[in-house]
Amino acid sequence: MKYRLLALDMDGTVLNSQKKISPQTVAAIKKLSESGVYVVTSTGRGRAEVNDYPDVINLMNCGILNSGGLLFDFVRDEPIAIHGVDEKIILKLIDFGLEERAMIHLLGIRHSIAREEDIQNMAAFDMAVYHDMFNRICERCADPKEYVLEHPGEVIKVNLYHRDKISRDKNFERIKPLNLSISFAESNNLEMSPANITKASGLIELCDFLKIDLAETVAIGDADNDKEILQTAGLSVAMGNASDEIKKLADFVTLDNDHDGVAAAIEKFFKE
Predict the structure, then answer these.
(1) Fold classification of 5-83+198-269 (topology level)
(2) Can you give the residue ranges of every domain in the chain?
(3) Are 13 and 200 in contact (CB under 8 A)?
(4) 3-state class of 229 per DSSP?
(5) What are the tens digits of pLDDT across the range 63-109?
(6) Which of 250, 262, 219, 255 is nearest to 240 (CA)?
(7) Could you tell me the CA-to-CA distances from 225 to 95, 166, 170, 192 in Å, in that order?
(8) Under CATH, what is the fold of the domain 87-194?
(9) CB 188 within 8 A of CB 164
(10) Which residues contact 248 (CB under 8 A, 6 or more apart)?
(11) Fewer CB atoms near the end CB (10 Å): N or C, the chain?
């Protein structure tokens, strides 16, 4: 099979454990992109978060962002498709977050929104590794409910970062009846998107837009929010640092993210 599209997760996949991208991985992506293969990111991050990595994003054609809620054309710098969360549901999610003293993170089309006090206290939510990025790129909002009401239709995804697993699990049970797509990408977080919106739905929608058959795609990931896309792509690759569950459902397991697993997979499956 000659594959025409590679969908790459960011955290735990393209990014190493230090949230950096190695020169070897950048070089492999660059070479593949220049060969005519569509290289896209499939990530829970929004447009603001991926902007932090211009060296690799500038090599990509499109992005499946916000866990499938936003398809973005990086070349034209404009959305291809937007799937927002209903405002009434967002307000409920915010209430649940406030009751559990969670960090509330809203992802829009181009913006990432959070409260200042949460950004400066990210270690309490087991998110210290992201503090520098959030501190630089987040738009501050003292009242997330007010932001939602003032920006109707603009919130695509809601993240709730909890202080512990007990708190997270309590909110998970409260959120389940709301008919949302829910994933666990970090230790104590919940990521909420509209029902049936996942990285997999984003891949299907993007392939339709680009006129590419799903059988001609490869997806690489490592976490819970990669399950569906790995089960949907023509070929699925799990990172060496992925959980056993993710490795079992993948067609192939590559090296881990600290040893250029993405570059190794590109070399194996995209030989000229």
Answers:
(1) Rossmann fold (3.40.50)
(2) 5-83+198-269, 87-194
(3) no
(4) helix
(5) 999 999 999 999 999 999 999 999 999 999 999 999 999 999 999 99
(6) 255
(7) 24, 20, 20, 11
(8) 3.30.1240
(9) yes
(10) none
(11) C
